[in-house]
Design goal:
single chain, alpha/beta, Uracil-DNA Glycosylase, subunit E, 6 strands
Length: 182
């Protein structure tokens, strides 16, 4: 899937990164949203400058993987730039109806690349994919649920793991490593 026109604000679509060794691992990481740096620098270059990238790299290293071994994508694939004249440069948050459209877009991407394992990062991704579940995000973290008959490991967002490392977050990291290795 190379583009999307489902939303009135759709634009600046980015499918993410498909690692050159992905077909050997079948692992897909789904983050929440990209930011406008990807428009200026390209998805991979902008991603590598983030704190998220540092944490994801550690997660991958624990499982003897690199970015070359996975698909890295965002649940919300369009970038809605904020005020580029502002020093804070906050991007706009997607509307609820836009998030609902993203489920179908992610479905199409999953069908296209056929992952064997998925890792979902953060409550926005979980809530949009499993919103009808009675299980809250906090209860699902560190476990595998099934999305479209594919095991999906539920994790805190990498920045949450990075800045609040405690016994609970270590448990999640250990479970993720085990999931990726098996």
């Amino acid at each position: 899937m190379k583009s999307c026109t489902l939303c009135e604000r759709a634009g600046h679509f980015n499918e993410g990164l498909i690692g050159k060794n992905y077909s050997e691992t079948g692992v897909m990481f789904v983050l929440h949203i990209s930011d406008s740096r990807a428009l200026r620098e390209g998805y991979v270059k902008a991603y590598k400058k983030t704190n998220t990238a540092q944490t994801v790299d550690k997660m991958l290293k624990n499982a003897n993987l690199t970015l070359d071994d996975i698909v890295l994508t965002n649940f919300y694939k369009c970038i809605i730039p904020g005020d580029t004249n502002s020093s804070k440069n906050k991007d706009k948050i997607p509307w609820k109806k836009e998030y609902k459209n993203c489920v179908g877009v992610l479905d199409a991407q999953i069908q296209e690349i056929a992952p064997k394992k998925i890792v979902l990062f953060g409550s926005p991704v979980y809530n949009n994919l499993f919103g009808d579940s009675k299980e809250k995000f906090e209860e699902a973290v560190g476990r595998v649920k099934f999305f479209r008959n594919i095991g999906a490991f539920i994790s805190y967002h990498p920045s949450g793991l990075r800045f609040k490392w405690n016994a609970e977050k270590k448990r999640v990291q250990d479970n993720l490593t085990e999931y990726l290795l098996n």
